[in-house]
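Sat 14:20. Reprocessing the chain from the morning session after the first attempt stalled halfway. Input below, unchanged.
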Amino acid sequence: MSKPIALHRAFSMPSKQDKANAKKVFDLIDKDGNGVIDPDEFQEFAKMPELYSKPKEAEKATSAAIRMAMRQVDQAQDSKISFDEFFEWWKGNVTVVGMPASIQENMKKLAQKK
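Finished this time. Tokens:
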């Protein structure tokens, strides 16, 4: 039997503040400001120690795991992540296998710092 909270989460609308926070982090990752996250930008982002609960986890994030994570977030499979794709991940609608689950929560904390 499904948990009611999961059902609520799937159908709840994100707040304007949540979307604004996601955009802050997206813009932080999109270094060249072209409106998409390319593989190099995602690689650099995924190595940020602030995203991990344990300091050594960032060092353990392999290039192969990061590439696999990018493919999972990149729903269009066009080798770039649009804001819409990023926001789906931000909301928890995309599960990224191979990267610690703590990254999503820590992305949200990162938005509060910026």
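DSSP finds seven helices and two strands in the chain.
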